Amino acid sequence: MSTTSSPVDKKLPHRSSTLRSTISGFERRASMSDDEAIPGSDSNETTNLLLERLRAWKHMCGYLEDYVSATSKVQKSMSKDFEKILKTVNEPLKEGHHFSQSAGGVSSFFESVRSNTQGMANLCLDGERNLKTVVLPILEKLHKDIKVKSSELQTGASKGAKAVERARNTTQKHIDLLTQNTSALDATSGSKVDASHDPYILRRGVVHRLNKQVIEENNNRQDIIVVQNNFQQFEAHILQTIQGALEQLVEFMGNQSDRQKTMYADMLGTVQRIPPDFEWVNFITRNDSTLVDPDAPPRSLANISFPNQDHRTTQPLIEGSLERKSRTVLKGYSTGYYVITPARYLHELKDNDDLRKDPSPELSLYLPDCLVGAIDGNKFTVKGKDVSGGVVGNAFHASSELSFKAPSARDAEKWWNILKDATRGPIATTVAAAAAAAVSPIVPSSPAVATHQPPAYLEKDSIPSNTAATASSVAETVTSPVSEKVTEKATEVATEHA
Length: 498
Fold this sequence. Notes:
Layout: E1 19-23, E2 26-30, H1 45-88, H2 106-118, H3 128-187, H4 199-252, H5 258-272, H6 278-286, E3 318-325, E4 333-340, E5 345-349, E6 363-366, E7 371-372, E8 379-384, H7 391-395, E9 400-405, H8 409-423, H9 431-438, H10 447-452, H11 467-477, H12 481-497
Antiparallel strand pairs: 1-2, 3-4, 3-9, 4-5, 5-6, 7-8, 8-9
């Protein structure tokens, strides 16, 4: 029988691993755990950082607005009022850690503002009107632009983050369910579990939900990357707007004393020397572990592991395509994907694809409650009751005999041997099972014997008249308590037929 590849081996969506990228001469690293089903990082972490940065720019703009407004008032009251102006910028910037503390940045610019304002104690009042009608509106408009940008980011990012959280919660619940049932199956030494709680089925369900989660994560990640790429241009716009506002301020104050002009020119020179990308480059250098690296590849489902992924109860004893005879005579045989699990279930699924939809069994037979017939070339039968509760199972709500056809006689023998091994467990509780075991050509005394000589159960009309004698002779050769009970049942059935 050809080896069937695992569904997880297919080409699947993947998520980012830790990689390096270079931006403006600086190396940064951003990582998302590529081997964790549920990453520990908050999906809102990057968005919150960018929102905080926008608040920093907004407060910085507010500082300048306060400064210009106070300056216009100070024009009336001379030096005492200029002391009030100094107070508007005397406190440290809110979210000041977002700005570079080295020379040539926003922080050094505000240091220049404070020192020059202290020297403007004797400013004139000539520029009051121009400050209120020209400079302030520029800064107020910039303040509104920053607020709009913050609102757009918060609204757009919240949808993707919520979708990621929902997907992660769903995956985690299914992983917890898999953990509970694998532990339960180990603790109870392979006793019967519900078909829907078969660890094999649960593991495939985890893969299905994990695939949806990765898609949501990558979609959210791509949205954040687009926002990050726009931030550099937006911050350049902020700095350029501030530069333009200060240029107007200097022009209006040009008619005042040379000292005043020199002080304002110094303020202007300080802010103009800030490169448009100076603060952004320093920002991403300091926060390289938090920001998303746009050059890193997306997450990969093939590289993700989760608890009990390779647990022995999740690995099939045998799986592959078989043909099952339809109950409708005209339809003949139909092909399906079948698997025998360590939980001793025979499941029928539409295919072995875990990604397109949730892999729910179409048919599930609990083998210890079933009767396996003899091999006829590449055909064999299994008699039992479907416990899946699926659409196909509704047609087999009562015990039915299902006929299967393997690709070859050798494949049929492999399936038959594993089926027989799976049915061995608790003592047979039905007369039919006992009778089938009694009239088999050879009553096996061990699993090894059963593997080499498959038994067959006979139809009622084909039982010979000397069945009782045959059963009696078999009973003499079997010494185990299980065989004795099976022989007694077989003798009773044979007597009834006789």
